[in-house]
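Possible regression after last week's pipeline update?

I re-ran a chain I had predicted before the update to compare outputs. Posting the input and the new output here so someone can diff against the archived version. Not blocking, just want to make sure nothing changed silently.
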Amino acid sequence: MTEILLLVRSAAASPEVEDEYNAWYDEVHVPQILERVPGVTSARRYRLADAQLAPADKLPVAYLAEYRIETDDPAASAAALGAALTDGTLDMSRTIARPEILFYRPV
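New output (post-update):
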């Protein structure tokens, strides 16, 4: 088994829905990922800290989610997650904007 890291950078669709976005992510999305996507062993969310080296106009989106996945076949795990995001396995929200989904493998 190999542990791969899945990082998802995203933002709330607007400031007006940021509380709803965070509630959906913490109460619906993360539990569903852990329960319904094979191999996902942990999940953790982060928000950009106030102190940064880059200027504010050069910063990425505000939120980062980290998922650890144990798998023998990273390509199959990526495909399974892609399917879950589109086939109704995971309840998605209108409050999420600009998700960037990246898989990392050990070097």
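Follow-up from reviewer: compared with the archived run. Residues 6 and 19 are 24 Å apart (CA to CA). Marking as no regression found.
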